[in-house]
Design brief:
Elements lengths: L8 E7 L12 H14 L3 E8 L2 E7 L6 H20 L12 E5 L4 H9 L1 H7 L13 H11 L5
Antiparallel strand pairs: 1-3, 1-4, 2-3
Helix pairs in contact: 1-2
Length: about 150
């Protein structure tokens, strides 16, 4: 295959199992280093990443040859495995099934980078982005969006 121009940016968010606050501040820098390394290993270019005690944000550029669901599944699995092996936290780090994923335009990157960088401030003040924090799908909302896209009545 020849070269293909692409700018595929994704924002991922996923949570710890049962939203338990198991990403402890004492090992968060080591966890973020592992997350960055696993992103590279899996073929992604990490742009920003951060973690709160109960969830993670990852902003990444992916080539078109990588399946999004495979990529994030591998990053989640490998990062939890390495935390257990290398950091050995008091509580085993496990992830909730699923994740949130959103595609972004290049001109949106700065705004999302600031959001990811300032996670603690956003959570402390309650000024959260409903879209960037979303992990679970609202089936009724999804059905309404699909109907609207098809030009059907909701």
């Amino acid at each position: 295959m020849g070269h293909a121009y692409h700018q595929l940016y994704y924002h991922f968010v996923w949570a710890t199992h049962a939203r338990d606050p198991h990403i402890d501040r004492s090992y968060r820098p080591a966890f973020l280093k592992i997350l960055k390394e696993e992103t590279f290993i899996r073929g992604g270019q990490p742009i920003r990443h951060n973690a709160m005690p109960d969830h993670v944000h990852l902003l990444v550029r992916l080539p078109p040859t990588i399946a999004v669901s495979d990529f994030i599944g591998q990053v989640k699995g490998a990062s939890a495995h390495r935390v257990g092996r290398e950091i050995q936290p008091k509580f085993k780090l496990q992830w909730q099934a699923g994740y949130g994923a959103m595609t972004l335009r290049k001109d949106e990157l700065d705004k999302v980078c600031r959001y990811v960088d300032n996670q603690e401030e956003h959570h402390r003040t309650g000024r959260l982005s409903e879209v960037l924090e979303r992990i679970d799908v609202d089936e009724e909302d999804w059905a309404a969006q699909v109907a609207k896209a098809r030009g059907e009545a909701p």
